[in-house]
Specification:
17% of the residues lie in helices and 34% in strands. The longest helix has 19 residues, at 36-54.
């Protein structure tokens, strides 16, 4: 492969001192994404990258097959409100899912909101929506070009018409309706400085109450903490309408505080859990008896009851104790608890009565994932969607009165899953920790080291990777590829102990786990270094960046997407400060040493033969700002001692990934697979 000629990336004489250690940052100017210089750089990079990708002979065929596989009807689990049913649907290739409503299950559905009509290119997305208790009003949020900023509006369900109000500058938020539908709670940030909407740090979130039919300027400030700029708020109104429950979060720390307000008696918010000691999720209540899923003294989770009339700790009761599996979520339906458990990184559904007595399981069809649970305490039915690596999401209805499961939606896909097998293996990491890995590939695969393999990971923020369907990955499997999904420390697969083992000074454990998984794939004969690619996005982009800098000889290709790659400055942009609970901060002398030791941007060694790398990011990413990827691409090229290409694909009018239109997704996936076909020499 001919060595590419890259556009010139100028350097600047920027050196920062971290606790006496000088650190050069020659590409600092690329952080100013909207500057004329950075815009010219973006254009030059895309010109080179797309000239390379467009010349790949397999690209057009892959794009066509992706389009065929993507084109199947999709449906979410229905939501029932006030006797109406609400459901997201996509006919196949629509850029954005469409929200429908109907008056009876299985009845004629009408379009309630079609985001595809909001922009010509499909880049305006429906990012959040909540229906009032009586099913009469829809509060919905849209975002443009993948930004995390949300604009809220209210639509009348019966007529499909919007009311006059428009609520702006909301982020990381849903809404909580008052029980009578007269208004809802939402969170808000002060507007950023001019030109800084996509980079300015987000602090001082506020909780407001909006009354239907009034302008945003008249919204009532319910709660703020000017003394704690990093506090954020997530609100819930109890099913009986009596209480406002406030989860007070602090960045991505899994712990949170819990406050509440009696909406009938009035008065100030009561600090039920005033300290940041554990994670609490409000499940429901019987009058003053509140139910919480918590990891307090239970890293794998338990369900407990707190009587707010007697809130002293000695009165707290455990209803469902911690078990061997992770209690991931609990909701109340049919006056019972529906508990979602994680068993070796796949889901199980179990039922308990309000006293915590086990009532059995809801059987799931295979080893896979429950994507959503939908139901309310007064309902006799639970809706959920289920998926696996080779099964697109199917929708079930569980009837509590008959204790029966009914399949509602099973979309057809032009793919034969019987030709493929899924297995779970356990890999010994550097320190002996057993790391689970899902392997998906064609049946009868030869262990001759010649199979192309894609190793995917995340390993952070307590997020679990469970078996989920991806139309794009079907193409990889059809090409003869092995798909390996690694359940690394830092995730939530085994609870908070597993998560914490991959944070702060233990972050290297995550990279060691991933490297061990790669070594296992090679040692088992499934693949070889020249045939092995690694992939991850966001925190997973950090994972890929760290592993390719630590063990470049182990991989043939790397696909870091929207990655956190500058570990010394990530906390200075948008919501980056919130990740300090997982990563630490360079402002702390000891944490700086740890971050500096693995930061991908700062651990590139000139003259090293790095694997072929295709970095992907977007110009409107206001979560992991694209400057991370820009600087890493420039530095990786400067250090590259071999001929393997280092390319960056910068999507315009897009963000971190949420709400990206179908057309963009297919085009990007076609480029990624075509790149791997070329680099890994798939025949």
């Amino acid at each position: 492969m001919a060595k590419l000629t890259y556009p010139l990336t100028p350097t600047v004489d920027q050196v920062d001192s971290y606790h006496g250690t000088p650190v050069a940052d020659p590409y600092r100017w690329l952080e100013q994404v909207d500057s004329p210089q950075a815009q010219a750089w973006i254009a030059a990079q895309n010109a080179l990258t797309f000239s390379f990708l467009e010349a790949l002979p397999e690209r057009a065929q892959i794009y066509q097959r992706l389009t065929e596989l993507w084109d199947y009807p999709k449906a979410s689990a229905p939501l029932k409100r006030g006797g109406r049913y609400f459901q997201l649907r996509n006919s196949g290739l629509e850029n954005q899912d469409v929200l429908y409503s109907c008056d009876a299950l299985g009845g004629v559905a009408k379009v309630l909101l079609d985001p595809n009509l909001l922009s010509a290119d499909g880049t305006v997305a429906l990012t959040s929506w909540e229906v009032s208790r009586d099913g009469g009003l829809l509060a919905y949020a849209t975002s443009a070009s993948g930004s995390d900023w949300r604009t809220w509006r209210v639509r009348v369900v019966a007529s499909g018409e919007d009311l006059s109000e428009v609520l702006e500058w909301s982020k990381f938020a849903s809404v909580a309706w008052l029980s009578d539908g007269s208004g809802f709670y939402y969170t808000y940030y002060d507007p950023p400085a001019a030109g800084q909407a996509y980079t300015e740090a987000n602090y001082y979130q506020k909780l407001y109450l909006h009354r239907i039919g009034t302008p945003q300027s008249e919204d009532v400030l319910v709660y703020q903490r000017p003394d704690h700029k990093e506090w954020g708020f997530s609100s819930v109104v109890s099913d009986d309408g009596r209480y406002l429950v406030l989860h007070v979060w602090h960045g991505t720390d899994p712990r949170n505080r819990v406050f509440y307000q009696d909406l009938v008696a009035g008065g100030e918010l009561v600090e039920l859990v005033p300290e940041l000691e554990a994670g609490y999720q409000f499940v429901g209540n019987d009058g003053p008896l509140f139910y919480f899923r918590t990891d307090l003294d239970a890293p794998r989770g338990r369900l407990m009851a707190i009587d707010i009339a007697h809130p002293a700790r000695e009165h707290w009761r455990t209803l469902i104790p911690q078990g061997q599996d992770v209690l991931e979520q609990v909701i109340m339906v049919h006056d019972s608890f529906v508990a979602l458990y994680l068993h070796h990184a796949h889901h199980q559904l179990r039922l308990f009565d309000t006293g915590g007595q086990a009532l059995g399981e809801i059987p799931l069809p295979d080893v896979g994932s429950v994507l959503s649970l939908s139901g309310h305490r007064e309902d006799d039915e639970l809706f959920y969607s289920f998926t696996s690596f080779v099964q697109p999401p199917v929708v079930y209805r569980y009837d509590f009165r008959r204790a029966s499961n009914e399949l509602l939606e099973a979309p057809p896909v032009r793919f034969d899953p019987t030709r493929y097998q899924t297995q779970q293996v356990f890999v010994s990491s550097k320190d002996g920790t057993q790391v689970p890995v899902f392997l998906v590939h064609k049946r009868g695969l030869a262990n001759d080291g010649q199979n192309p393999a894609l190793l995917y990971g995340y390993g952070g923020f307590g997020i679990s990777l469970t078996p989920t369907f991806s139309a794009s990955r079907l193409v990889w499997l059809e090409l003869g590829g092995v798909l390996a999904i690694a359940n690394l420390r830092g995730g939530g697969e085994y609870g908070q102990d597993w998560h914490q083992a991959g944070t702060l000074h233990g972050k290297q454990n995550v990279f060691d786990d991933f490297i061990a998984c790669a070594e296992h794939l090679i040692a088992s004969g499934l693949t070889s270094p020249a045939k092995l690619a690694i992939q991850g996005g966001s925190n997973g982009g950090l994972l890929v960046g760290a592993c390719l800098t630590q063990r470049p000889e182990l991989f043939g290709a790397a696909l870091p997407a929207v990655g956190v790659l500058d570990m010394l400055r990530f906390h200075q942009f948008t919501i980056g400060w919130a990740w300090v609970s997982d990563y630490g901060s360079a402002e702390d002398p000891e944490q700086f040493k740890t971050l500096y030791a693995y930061s991908p941007l700062h651990n590139l060694r000139p003259g090293t033969h790095y694997p072929a790398t295709l970095i992907t990011t977007a110009d409107h990413d206001d979560r992991v700002v694209p400057g991370h990827s820009f600087k890493f691409a420039a530095a990786l090229r400067a250090a590259q001692g071999g001929d393997a290409p280092i390319l960056i694909r910068i999507q315009t009018n897009a963000g971190h990934g949420m709400g990206k239109p179908t057309s963009m997704l297919i085009a990007e996936q076609a480029d990624l697979w075509a790149f791997l076909v070329e680099i890994l020499e798939l025949s």
